[in-house]
Specification:
Blueprint (H helix, E strand, L loop, with lengths): L1 E5 L4 H11 L5 E6 L8 E2 L5 H11 L3 E4 L6 H6 L1 H22 L2 E7 L21 H16 L3 E6 L2 E2 L8 H10 L4 E4 L3 E2 L2 E2 H13 L4 E4 L6 E2 H12 L6 E4 L19 H4 L9 H11 L6
Parallel strand pairs: 1-2, 1-4, 2-3, 4-5, 5-6, 6-11, 7-10, 8-13
Antiparallel strand pairs: 9-12
The structure holds NADP nicotinamide-adenine-dinucleotide phosphate (NAP).
């Protein structure tokens, strides 16, 4: 099986690139966009010509698509620019999947929901309340209308070691290690998800040749403040530096789905990979440790 991971320089893409590369059943190719990374090819998914050239050269069986501008705040203030990346770029990958016959594995989010009544199942009706969520839902619908051989993976609050160091757990580790205080919302609920565990589950879904929509998230639903406290416990950090606050005091531009998170019943009935709770996910992450986070 030939697989191309578009966005292999990002958090989820990099872990997926490594995970598939360890399995001799896959020939794995990966791409970067702005972070020139050894062993990866350049690909701008907004460039239809480049997408066509790369895809016809590789002729993939699977196009793994975690590529995005996934910053909800930036999407809110730059809707035109981020639509070009997220929606138009995805449209080019959808067309490439159609032309090559490859399976498309796309990463979406619980931000497709309004957050009034989570955690959500795959059957619940989306109703995005910010630009990032609207873009995600639009891409999901483009995929459903164009392809039959696809996986849409909805995930959320993903954490793990990554070069950019932008995810919440790394922010907590970095700030507290430098003795910096953090105000963290105790009214935003989600499902913290250990990236490596999520990628292993998605790989199993791919191996089982599953199609359609799956929530792939961690086992627990919890608020950000409680999650931050768990991080301090596992990583031995000073919990007194974390103060609870409410979302209205954070001055975020993009509205957040407050009672979000997702149910995992559907995927649990299909895969054998154990879905980790927050404590176990953080412990796994600690075991893995990665240098260079300061
Ligand atoms: N992380 C989460 O908590 C979370 C939650 C829910 C859903 N998701 C979704 O999961 C996916 C992956 O998230 P992530 O956290 O791994 O994102 P990430 O770390 O920001 O990585 C994004 C990747 O997309 C690439 N990219 C950006 N613009 C591109 C373009 N025009 N053409 C080709 N590649 C481009 C980036 O390349 P360069 O870095 O080289 O520029 C990077 O490799 C996203 O779709 C995100 O919306 C993530």
């Amino acid at each position: 099986m030939r697989i191309i991971v578009v966005g292999a320089s990002g958090l989820i893409g990099n872990i997926a690139f490594k995970e598939f590369s360890m399995d001799p059943a896959y020939d794995v190719f990966g791409t970067y966009f702005s972070q020139n990374t050894e062993g990866l090819l350049h690909l701008d998914m907004m460039d239809k010509k480049e997408v066509g050239e790369v895809m016809s050269e590789i002729n993939p069986d699977i196009i793994f698509h975690p590529a995005a501008n996934a910053n909800a705040e930036y999407c809110e203030s730059h809707p035109v620019e981020t639509r070009k990346t997220n929606v138009d770029g995805s449209r080019n990958l959808i067309e490439a999947a159609k032309e090559t016959g490859a399976k498309l594995v796309f990463f979406s989010s619980d931000y497709v929901f309004d957050g009034l009544d989570g955690p959500y199942s795959e059957e619940d009706a989306p109703n995005p309340i910010n630009e990032y969520g609207r873009q995600k839902l639009e891409i999901e619908n483009l995929i459903r209308n164009a392809l039959s051989n696809y996986l849409i993976i909805r995930t959320t609050v993903v954490y793990g070691w990554e070069l950019k160091g932008k995810n919440f757990v790394i922010q907590v580790i970095r700030n507290l290690s430098n003795n910096l205080k953090m105000n963290v919302a105790n009214d935003q609920f989600g499902s913290p998800t250990y990236a490596n565990n999520m990628v292993q589950i998605v790989k199993e879904l791919v191996g089982l040749n599953k199609t359609g929509l799956y929530n792939v998230v961690g086992r627990d639903v919890m608020d950000r403040y409680s999650f931050a406290k768990k991080v301090t416990g596992v990583f031995g950090l000073n919990a007194d530096l974390i103060a609870p606050t409410t979302t209205d005091k954070l001055g975020q531009k993009a509205k957040r789905p407050m009672k979000a998170g997702m149910k995992t019943t559907k995927v649990q009935n299909v895969v054998t990979t154990h879905i980790l709770c927050v404590d176990d996910g953080l412990k796994e992450m600690k075991k893995e440790q990665m240098g260079g986070i300061s």
